[in-house]
Structure formats: C-alpha cells, structure tokens
Write a structure and sequence with these properties.
Elements lengths: L1 H44 L3 H16 L8 H23 L10 H18 L5 H29 L10 H4 L9 H17 L7 H18 L2 H17 L6 H31 L3 H11 L4 H19 L33 H29 L5 H14 L10 H10 L11
Helix pairs in contact: 1-2, 1-4, 1-5, 3-4, 3-13, 4-15, 5-7, 5-8, 7-8, 7-9, 7-15, 8-9, 9-10, 9-14, 13-14
C-alpha cells in the first residue's frame, strides 16, 4: 500500500506543475480577452485610453497564445479564416490603391479578431476560463447599456455622458461606445443572445429580465429598426421557447411572462410618450419618428439602400476579379445614380468583402456565413433558436455601415454557433 502511494506522488507533482503552467498562461489570455473586448468602452472614458487598452490586449495575446498547443477545432477553423482576412487587410493597407477616403488600418482590428477568437478557444478549455469569458461579456453589456442611458440623460436632462460626435446631441443621436447607433444596437443584442444561449442566467431570473428589458430600451433609443424588431422576436421566442423544452406548464408560464413583459414595455413607452409630448427629448422624437417610418418612406429608403447594394453585387458577380483593392472606394461597381454613401459603405459585410477583395473576399464572406449556419445546426439548439440566430447573422451583417473594424462582432457569432458543454453558472 505504501509502495502504491509513493508511486503516485510523481504523477501528482507533474499534474500540479502542468496545471500551474496552464493557469499562468491563461491569466494572460483572460486579461487580453477582457481588454480587447472593453477597448471601445474605454474610448468613452477618455481619448486615447482605448488605444492603450487595445495595445496592451494585443501584447498580452502575443505573449500567451503560443504557450498552448491544443485548441477546439470550432475556434481553430474560424481563427484560420480570419487570419487569411488579416493577411488581406495587411496587403490592402500597405499595397492597396488610394481613394478619396483614407484607408482604415483594418489589419490591426483584423489581427484583434483573430486574437479574440483564439483566446476564446483557449478559455473554453482552461480552468474557470468560460466563466471569465462570459463574465467579461456580461460586464461589457452592462457598461454599454449604462453608456446609452447616460447619453440619453445628457441629451434629455443635461446630466450624463455626451455622445461622440459634435452634432450628435443636436440631432438626438445615441452613439454609445461604438460611435454609431446601429453598431451599438447590434452589439447589445448579440451579447444578450450569447448570454442567454450559454445558459448563464438560468438561476438568476431577476438579472435576466433586467438585462432583457434594459437591452430592449437601449436598442429602442438607438434606434436601429431592424435590430429592434429582431430583438422583439427574440423576446417572444425566449418567453415561449425558453431553452427548447416544451410542456403545458411552460406554455402557461410563457403566457404569464409575456403579459408581464408587455405591461412593462407599454408602461415604459407611455412614460417616453409623455416626454415626447412635453418636447423634452430629441432622442425619443427621433426614435419614434424612425419607428413610424419603418412602413413608410423612411422604411422604403432603408430597404432600398441595402437592396440596391446587393443588386450591384449580383450584377457584377461575374466580373468581381480582385475587387477595387481600395478601402472605402467601391464606385467602380456602382452606377452613377446610386447614393454617394454606397460608394464608401455598402452596409453589408458580404457586399463590402466582394467589392473590396473580389472573388477572394466573396468566398471568405460566404464561407463565414455557411460555417455559422452549419455550426448553429450542430450547437445543441432547438430548430427555432438555430433558425433565428442564422436570420440574425444574415440581417446583422447588413445593419452597421461596416463590420470589418468590429472584432467582437465576429467573435460573438462564433460563440453563438459553438456547442456549450460547460454547466458553469455565475456565482
């Protein structure tokens, strides 16, 4: 017996050393993940702070990523896909053609996209890694919702945070930390979807509904109309579908929850309507006007812009070649009467990749969307959720003016399409 116990001592010591090495490496990954995720919010706190945090996050990633050899295939394949995109971005910046608008340093955010995806893959197999990752996403979500409400308070009551952009306060534009209301709405919605999909709030119903309703009001204030209605659809799906379990009791419970949500939303909108009638909030005036325009001229114009963008892609599908290879300069694929804005921002990831990098970009964009669709079907989701999240992927890639400089946007879809095996919950 003594002999057997002594023989296990070296094994235990080796396991402890291995665990210690793993933990020291993942400390770097945890902080690099959080810093790369939070750098947009840091920009709201002070000019230049976001660049510092972004740089430190990249540095920590470079130090720690090579210490671990194995990674889940799910994250590795997306890391490889976006590494190819990073190479294209680097070639574009240093060898691309110059246009009327200065080129963006897309290779920097492209590398950050690779970093975030690989770090997420590492954290999924690290002790307490998933918990850290989802806590970071939770904090990021809470910060963004708080920033939206503080900007609303500044423009309505004179107390809070001023939005980014000189004219934003005058036209009632909520810019959040991403500088654009459409970007803010998409990122808030995606983070809510991820946290729900990961099952991190199953034991915290109060926190769940605070986030669900807080996200709804924040998106309404932005107001990204497509995102707002997809979020409403998600709430309905959440109430009736839950985590995919179906029973008579869950249906009755769902009806009750839906009634409560409807009452709370109507009460909030009634309060906002009072502010509108008093003329105290330019933000709410803008949001209501945009919501009303969805089925009118404003909505037609919104749909027409994206539709025209994709029509031009179809018309040029046989002559894309290597694309314009000039950032924010896509006029060669458009007609003279097309909107000027479309020549800079087609408002579609698929279209922009195709116009910018030709057939190579088209193939990368289609591959990303196809992989997301395939992985969603294998992620252990109900068909309703899998179908909904794929619809979200199709529409959300068309909402921001450009997603190429938004690393977390791609990370969030990779996480949505991943299979969850961890049962960790927030403490």
């Amino acid at each position: 017996m003594q002999k057997i116990e002594n023989s296990t001592v070296p094994q235990r010591a080796a396991e402890i050393r291995k665990s210690s090495n793993f933990s020291s490496a993942t400390v770097l990954q945890k902080w690099s993940f959080s810093l790369l995720l939070f750098y947009p919010q840091a920009g709201v706190l002070g000019f230049g702070l976001n660049y510092l945090i972004f740089g430190v996050g990249i540095a920590l990633f470079l130090v720690g990523v090579f210490r671990l050899k194995k990674m889940p295939r799910h994250f590795l394949k997306y890391g490889a896909l976006f590494f190819l995109l990073f190479v294209l971005h680097a070639l574009l910046f240093f060898l691309g053609k110059s246009g009327d608008v200065p080129a963006r340093p897309l290779f920097v955010t492209g590398f950050a996209t690779v970093g975030l995806i690989l770090i997420a893959g590492i954290l999924t197999r690290a002790p307490d890694g998933k918990s850290w990752m989802y806590r970071s996403i939770l904090v990021c979500l809470l910060l963004e919702i708080a920033i939206v409400f503080l900007q609303f308070g500044h423009m309505t009551y004179g107390v809070g945070l001023a939005p980014r952009g000189e004219d934003s306060s005058y036209i009632g534009l909520i810019t959040g930390s991403y500088g654009n209301p459409n970007n803010v709405a998409v990122m808030i919605a995606l983070q809510v979807f991820i946290l729900h999909k990961a099952g991190k709030f199953e034991n915290h119903p109060f926190l769940t509904w605070v986030l669900l309703l807080g996200g709804l009001l924040a998106i309404f204030l932005t107001l990204s109309r497509t995102c707002f209605f997809l979020y409403i659809l998600f709430l309905i799906l959440y109430v009736f579908e839950g985590k995919g379990k179906k029973s008579k009791s869950s249906i009755l419970e769902g009806c009750f929850k839906f009634s409560v949500v409807l009452i709370l939303v109507l009460a909030a909108f009634s309060y906002f309507q009072g502010l509108i009638n008093d003329g105290n909030s330019i933000v709410l005036d803008r949001s209501i006007a945009r919501l009303s325009d969805l089925t009118g001229a404003g909505g037609d114009e919104l749909i027409s812009f994206r539709q025209t963008s994709h029509e031009r892609l179809m018309q040029n599908l046989l002559s894309l070649g290597l694309g314009s290879f000039s950032d924010l300069n896509y006029g060669i694929f458009l007609e003279s009467h097309d909107p000027e804005l479309m020549k800079v921002n087609p408002h579609s990831f698929l279209v922009e990749m195709s116009f910018l990098y030709g057939y190579v970009g088209f193939l990368l964009a289609v591959s990303f969307l196809a992989l997301i669709a395939y992985d969603l079907m294998r992620a252990g989701l109900s068909y309703a959720y899998a179908g909904f999240f794929f619809i979200v992927a199709i529409f959300f890639q068309m909402i921001p003016s450009s997603v190429l400089s938004m690393p977390a946007f791609f990370l969030f879809f990779v996480l949505l399409a991943s299979r969850e095996s961890s049962k960790e919950k927030f403490a």
